[in-house]
Amino acid sequence: MDAIRHVPGSTQAFTIRQVDNNTGPADWFPEDHPPMPEVVAHGRRPGVNACGFCHYPNGKGRPNNAGPAGLPASYILQQLEDFATGGFRQWREEQLGQAKAQYDADDRHRQAHDP
Ligand code: HEC
Description:
The chain is mainly α. Helices cover about 45% and strands about 0% of the residues.
């Protein structure tokens, strides 16, 4: 955890603990992007992790989330509002919803035949 790590092409050095800090994640390529807004670099306490932890300091994101970099500000704000109000449904939730509906249907079917 405390051994110093490097990545190819970066002059920076971090420990795994620093890389894994979700309120101040390591920035391997600070010259690669403009200064981060405070919430992107450090999140907002309580409860908001640094956006850059998941979406990277340059906003391009990891394969398992999204790359908000370059999207229109109005679109980003709309997405955040939809996350907060439930207007945005993640595909995982969709899958869970479908799985639950399937389970309920199977259960009713089974009960109808095996009361
Ligand atoms: C814990 C990881 C995590 C953090 C921290 C995080 N996000 Fe995300 N974000 C995701 C994931 C995962 C998705 C993709 C959701 C989906 O499509 O189901 C996403 C999607 C988005 C999108 C939608 C992009 C698109 O193409 O529609 C925006 C905008 C966004 N995040 C902004 C932010 C902002 C701003 C912050 C900081 C306040 C933030 N995120 C913090 C994981 C994170």
